[in-house]
Amino acid sequence: MAGMGGLNAAEQRELQGRMEQKQMKDFMNMYSNLVQRCFNDCVTDFTTKSLLGKEEGCVMRCVDKFLKSSERLGERFQEQNAQMAAQGGMNTGR
What we know:
Layout lengths: L8 H34 L10 H34 L8
């Protein structure tokens, strides 16, 4: 793995495991926030156990908007990283 050259195999496995756990935790937090936001914004009628048509449409639009904005944010982040790397700005001075 890049960036782990100073670690032995056991340390690399441990670090990889911790990184995977953090990624899973971050994903679960993002998913939880998405569910909470879309539920709070869209669900207004609690007289039935299923979503009304307008609520379901709202939830679908909410999720779609969130996913598209997350995708765009990721793209911009990659663009900024590429631009910084091209300019030599990725050197942190260590």
